[in-house]
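Hi all, posting the design record for the shared folder.

TITLE: backbone redesign
STEP: 1 of 1
STRUCTURE INPUT:
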């Protein structure tokens, strides 16, 4: 995910949150993008490392985050 898309999604999820908290979260993520780019990482790599904006919001709100990988049933053979 590109940086602008990532930041826009954060703004969307945090739209009803405290503005100061949102600013701090945006600043932290901005700094992570700057550092990642200095290390030669792409926006996609950096955003994957940060996690989804929705999960960041859920963590902030104290909600449980499902960290299990998605289940794939493509390997199953039907009788």
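Okay, here is what came back for every position:
SEQUENCE:
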């Amino acid at each position: 995910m590109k940086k602008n898309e990532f930041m826009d999604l954060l703004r969307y999820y945090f739209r009803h949150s405290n503005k100061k908290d949102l600013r701090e979260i945006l600043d932290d993520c901005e700094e992570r993008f700057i550092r990642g780019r200095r290390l030669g990482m792409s926006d996609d790599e950096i955003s994957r490392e940060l996690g989804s904006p929705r999960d960041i919001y859920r963590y902030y709100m104290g909600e449980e985050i499902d960290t299990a990988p998605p289940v794939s049933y493509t390997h199953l053979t039907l009788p």
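COMMENT: The mean pLDDT is 85.
Let me know if anyone wants the other runs.
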